[in-house]
Amino acid sequence: xxxxxxxxxxxxxxxxxxxxxxxxxxxxxxxxxxxxxxxxxxxxxxxxxxxxxxxxxxxxxxxxxxxxxxxxxxxxxxxxxxxxxxxxxxxxxxxxxxxxxxxxxxxxxxxxxxxxxxxxxxxxxxxxxxxxxxxxxxxxxxxxxxxxxxxxxxxxxxxxxxxxxxxxxxxxxxxxxxxxxxxxxxxxxxxxxxxxxxxxxxxxxxxxxxxxxxxxxxxxxxxxxxxxxxxxxxxxxxxxxxxxxxxxxxxxxxxxxxxxxxxxxxxxxxxxxxxxxxxxxxxxxxxxxxxxxxxxxxxxxxxxxxxxxxxxxxxxxxxxxxxxxxxxxxxxxxxxxxxxxxxxxxxxxxxxxxxxxxxxxxxxxxxxxxxxxxxxxxxxxxxxxxxxxxxxxxxxxxxxxxxxxxxxxxxxxxxxxxxxxxxxxxxxxxxxxxxxxxxxxxxxxxxxxxxxxxxxxxxxxxxxxxxxxxxxxxxxxxxxxxxxxxxxxxxxxxxxxxxxxxxxxxxxxxxxxxxxxxxxxxxxxxxxxxxxxxxxxxxxxxxxxxxxxxxxxxxxxxxxxxxxxxxxxxxxxxxxxxxxxxxxxxxxxxxxxxxxxxxxxxxxxxxxxxxxxxxxxxxxxxxxxxxxxxxxxxxxxxxxxxxxxxxxxxxxxxxxxxxxxxxxxxxxxxxxxxxxxxxxxxxxxxxxxxxxxxxxxxxxxxxxxxxxxxxxxxxxxxxxxxxxxxxxxxxxxxxxxxxxxxxxxxxxxxxxxxxxxxxxxxxxxx
Length: 766
Known about the structure:
Strand order of the largest sheet: 3-4-2-5-6-1-7
CATH class of the largest domain: Alpha Beta
Structural class: alpha/beta
Distance between the termini: 106 Å
């Protein structure tokens, strides 16, 4: 038998002891990947950095060495709930431990004395605040250090040390004093997610000495990733269907940005027969704890929560994690979605994406000092959500610096499952036009919505002096959605910066300006490409095309008139109407043909009227809105050249026909996107508060929340004036209007205001 060298023999003995304790004390037959190596490095008194995804077994790497060694291991954790879970687990294993402060009732002096007197204690738990703010705790640590009983520090959730991390905490930063005060005590740092930048920062801040770095694969093979477009009007039904179809009796988490969304969504799901409740930071501790316990025990299946919920939650059988709005970074998404499938069974991770949710994140980011970095993180996750071709697992893992072959995804993401063929469309010329407009930075063109409106040629008070400005209306033939995509692509590629600026003492806004890569785009040395998915362009799920496919065709010519390709010809009850984007014309009846074609790439029509003066000079078209004659200025005094109304056209295009119509559609069906809604609502909220201060009335008396929401969904940005005086006068006019169901003869004001009601409501003037 070969003789072992002394050092090799010692290592062999330690390894045998490690294996034995893992089996007898921790009841594990084998080690998970990297666990054994980390434990041996720890027993060699090395500094260690461990990045291991959720469920990888990080806790064992500091618990097992603590059992083997004499002395104490000090474990620092950010949350009391995390410590409670650790204590409960160690107590079950009969491993002696103590907690300094937190939920223990004993005062700190008694705890310190008890620890010093009891040599069986192996692990001490505390929060970083106890080290940074408690002198007694520091004195105690210094005492056991001098006695040679302080074996190691274990810092859990170590990414909190780094200002580049997703959950930076200032008290974690103060842990840098550990190396100075206890220079010979090894430190092991542990985290579930960390980019290379975060890893380097943690190592530098904590002054780790030649640390051994252990990086486990971030790939969670059992998680299925999917992103869906968010339709606010249908999302509750879509989530309900998803849960009832796939996870009727399974536990899940739904993450929302706001507390209001949490409560509302939980209530809506409960109405649909899904056992659900909510969780957010503004709840009482008792209520939060109660809901969490019910969810852990399975009495509640779905917990709708803000990001206040999650860290320290160890429920193995979570089958789905849904993001009602996209998360604030890929790092956050990895952590939050990673709460699903910890038992190794297949689980779903689903994001509902809408660009407008960015503005909710913006408001939170603007409260943060690291605004620019947070915006970059936000853009990265937005690019992830808008990518419908690249393997989602590949995008996530490469963010953390890990190469991944998409073949190994095994169709466990929507993009790999759908295998969308794509081509790249060169949008460089469009991008140049956008940058040229932005280079001149016209006053009043600050946000993405304002820039899009300017390029589309939408006139409003903010840009009424800019109609002759170069670039105004230069993209009138493009879809609003497509213009937005190009602008967002320029933002993602650093050709446009979205900067946060103060517009008053209390309020901030985002402003677009030229980015670092703008010159390259303008010179043509950098191309801007947008992916185009090659599939059937006819949206078979669109009710418009389903309903009208058999009576709709493209008319190339008719008589001596030339009709554009994006005109739609329809026949209904013998009345033929020609609609064109931005135009309304009434033509005599024409002979229909039988050569029907599917309509593709057609923008949802909007019939716009630039002003009352231009509207009254246009040929009058009888319809259900104006059944007898054009409304007079006397009947509608708000219609003046200072006011720019817009008439909607619904998807089924019946609105312009002289037949009754029932509308039950949200603002996005009328091309008022959520981005505009958020902007208008925020602006109107400012006006409402100002009016409240001026008049001494409550904001509800000035305008109810319900009416405020309706106005935000129905107004165009041109309805809002820049000066408060004009806004207040406008508000007073709005408040003179009462809603009631009136006869057909009354002027149907709602068609100008674009209210979305289950049945038509008429507005009259008092």
